[in-house]
Specification:
The chain is an alpha/beta fold. About 45% of the residues lie in helices and about 15% in strands. The two termini are about 35 Å apart. Bound molecules: 5'-O-[(R)-(carboxyoxy)(hydroxy)phosphoryl]adenosine and zinc ion (ZN). This is Glycoprotease 1. Homodimer.
Length: about 450
């Protein structure tokens, strides 16, 4: 590994201290960064503060009427995305290059191929985001990039690009938690959305119910013990011979409209578990068995199927969707109960992540929140699936609080060891909600985002 000055590489030096709080390093290196920036970019408002009062002053200068412009980069899974967002919530540009063709070909994400696909387009995607925003790199206030959770090989492409850019233009860098970004983008769309709120985050790899108490402060009420709902949608689509080019979820949603949702009585998962956790592996198996016993040949695309065959597939899609979403409904009802006890002032359920773009999911969850006198907040579909806007916005939210790393050194070696967090919990588990069924997924690599931030705040006080 190349030798790097510790004060300029907290993201990198963190790797050797994985169990130490990381965000504190951003604050301790701020003075250094401030000094550097003062020399190179004297116009940035927060940089002219006196070192002693930096933290407090930054918060006031960057509070509500700041004017930040942040580039967000996202490569944690199969979409290469970048966007430029202003701190007043204006989206200046948004570019997504999806690997839908690869997904259609392999029926899932193959990490090595996904990495190559990201590498091929990352420069172009970032450039296009800047061009569309009519800005150059030197107009940016910071670069935000997803550092986890996700596929290491894929995360690396985005982080390398972000660090190269930040190093060249002496920009601060904000490491973003992908799932936090899915939740916080709701605050960009609904500017009045305040903490605390409950969030259901549903994607290809995650199924999370979290109580968002404050920025960077999350209690995990539930997660999946095996697969996420998006994975179940994707496999169902593949086994039903659907066109995966727009990913599996939308294809199942579309076909389900033609089917009878009560035709097949799939079992609702985890009925006996009085917690907020999820399981979709069993439902996947039930779907596979139904497909096998219905003599459906996934090799024959649904577009070429006979009308009888198409109807049989539509019935499976609809029945699967009904039960998959019923599982969400049941766990959300319990989570609302728990969250209201912890934070009686919650008013909203935020639903985000790729699966939240599904209209049936939204309609069913809306009934649940209305019954409980809450409000449903769903970002528009384009901001539910992976995108750079959510990363840029989360970067803005943390940057305002002084949570960022100073610019990496220009010309950082390509083989520098990076701080990537493929398995990175968002918050600590709600102790009373711990389930026996969770035990198999306890192994973790990184302390949660919430615990890191809390540790850094304690150090500062
Ligand atoms: O959040 P996302 O874009 O990427 C991950 O972080 O995983 O979520 C992708 C997942 C995929 O499983 C995809 O099939 C699913 O979201 N998805 C949908 C819909 N649109 C995307 N699932 C159901 N209905 C949809 N309309
Ligand atoms: Zn996602």
């Amino acid at each position: 590994m190349a030798s790097l000055a510790p004060t300029l590489s907290s993201t990198i030096s963190r790797l050797t201290n994985l169990h130490k709080p990381s965000f504190h390093s951003a604050m301790t290196t701020l003075k250094n960064f401030q000094f550097q920036h003062k020399l190179s970019k004297p116009t940035r408002p927060f940089l002219s503060t006196s070192p002693g009062s930096l933290s407090a002053q930054m918060k006031s200068t960057l509070g509500s009427d700041d004017d930040l412009v942040v580039l967000g980069i996202e490569t944690s899974c199969d979409d290469t995305a970048a966007a430029v967002v202003r701190s007043n919530g204006e989206i200046l540009s948004q570019v997504v290059s999806s690997q839908a063709d690869l997904l259609a070909q392999y029926g899932g994400v193959a990490p090595k191929m996904a990495e190559e696909a990201h590498s091929q387009v990352i420069d172009q995607v970032v450039q296009e985001a800047l061009d569309k925003a009519k800005l150059s790199e030197s107009d940016l206030s910071a670069v935000a990039v997803t550092i986890g959770p996700g596929l290491s090989l894929c995360l690396r492409v985005g982080v390398q690009k972000a660090r190269k850019l930040a190093g060249t233009y002496a920009l601060p860098i904000v490491g973003v938690h992908h799932m936090e970004a899915h939740a916080l983008v709701a605050r960009l769309v609904h500017r009045e959305l305040q903490f605390p709120f409950l969030a259901l985050l549903i994607s290809g790899g995650h199924n999370l119910l979290v109580l968002a108490r404050d920025l960077g402060n999350y209690i995990q009420l539930g997660t999946t013990i095996d697969d996420a709902i998006g994975e179940a949608y994707d496999k169902t689509a593949k086994w039903l011979g659907l066109d995966m080019r727009k990913s599996g979820g939308p294809a199942v949603e579309e076909l389900a409209r033609e089917g009878d949702a009560d035709s097949i009585k799939f079992k609702v998962p985890m009925k006996q578990h009085k917690d907020c956790n999820f399981s979709y592996a069993g439902l996947k198996t039930q779907v596979r068995l139904a497909i096998e016993s219905g003599n459906i040949n996934p090799g024959i695309p649904v577009s070429s199927a006979t009308s009888e065959d198409r109807k049989a597939r539509a019935n499976i899609a609809a029945s699967f969707q009904r039960v998959a979403v019923l599982h969400l409904e049941e766990k959300c009802e319990r989570a609302i109960e728990w969250a209201s006890k912890i934070e009686p002032s919650i008013k909203c359920l935020v639903v985000s992540g790729g699966v939240a773009s599904n209209q049936y999911v939204r309609a069913q969850l809306n009934q649940i929140v209305e019954k409980n006198c809450l409000q449903l907040v769903c970002p528009p579909p384009k901001l539910c699936t992976d995108n750079g806007v959510m990363v840029a916005w989360t970067g803005i939210e943390h940057f305002r609080m002084g949570r960022f790393d100073p610019p990496p050194p220009a010309g950082e070696p390509e083989d520098a060891v990076l701080d990537l967090r493929p398995r990175w919990p968002l918050g600590e588990e709600y102790a009373e909600g711990r389930s026996e069924a969770r035990s198999m997924r306890r192994a973790r690599i990184h302390p949660s985002l919430t615990s890191l931030i809390q540790a850094s705040m304690q150090q500062q006080s």
